[in-house]
Write a structure and sequence with these properties.
alpha+beta; 306 residues; globular; two-stranded antiparallel ribbon; 12 strands
Amino acid sequence: MNLQCRDSLLVFTVAAAVATPAFGQAAAPTVGPANSGKESAASIPDFSGIWLHSNGYEPLPSGPTSLVNRSRRRDGAGNGLQLVGDYTNPILKPEAAEIVKSHGAIALKGIGDPTPRNQCWPGGVPFVFPSGSTQLIQQPNKVTILYGYDHQVRHVRMNQSHPAQVTPSWYGDSVGHYEGDALVIDTVGIKVGPFAMVDWYGTPHTEALHVVERYRLVDNEAAKEGFERDAKERVVAEGMRNPNHGGKYLQLQFTVEDKGVFTTPWTATMTYGFGPADWMEQVCAENIKWYSGQDAEVPRAAKPDF
């Protein structure tokens, strides 16, 4: 199976939800808590349940936003079997644009391109976002985010600030707080691994990467516009996705900045439909003999632990 085939399976097997009305560029990200942490239980949005989204981000209709696929199907949608990022997007600095272009050249040859996902490495933020099933477990002092693919986990400390010195880690240091009906998460200190990228087009990042997420529940009408943007980039099933018991969808708006890679902060969305009650096990390392006829570069210890 070639790399793009494996990477695109969720496009067909995971139902995508839809996003909210068009956003302009988000305000510059801020670090640390924005309140005292004394939100009442009634004011905190309930994100419980398992949420689903297909692969990739939903680019905004205007303003600095995520890359789109230069390779298109006959129906005009992005070609999920050939991931060729738009290296002419003005958010990219010249060196980053060349890296994206080189990844696209590999895809055009049909031989696959290594990513954290298909090499069984931690995805990091924001690459981990489109991982199929997603669950937010809300506690007073902590939010835990579970991702279905390869059982990835993030831990968000609530109403705290980043430490003065952050040790880089795969998912970075994440702090959060509630702003009205939104959960806001600020992440810095994301490690640069051997396959580090912020999207499926190979867009690189440095340790200066800074990501701000805003999660909130949206209604059917708000979700429809985002679904239409999503459908332009991916092959998704027609119609709306399933809402939760309250008739709502979960929408993520996120802003990315990295002065080593991008000319400006940029923003995109993802909107999730409500999913099944149970998790499906997806272990990357169970299937490693596929990439170019070789084993995937699964993380291995350089020396014994004991």
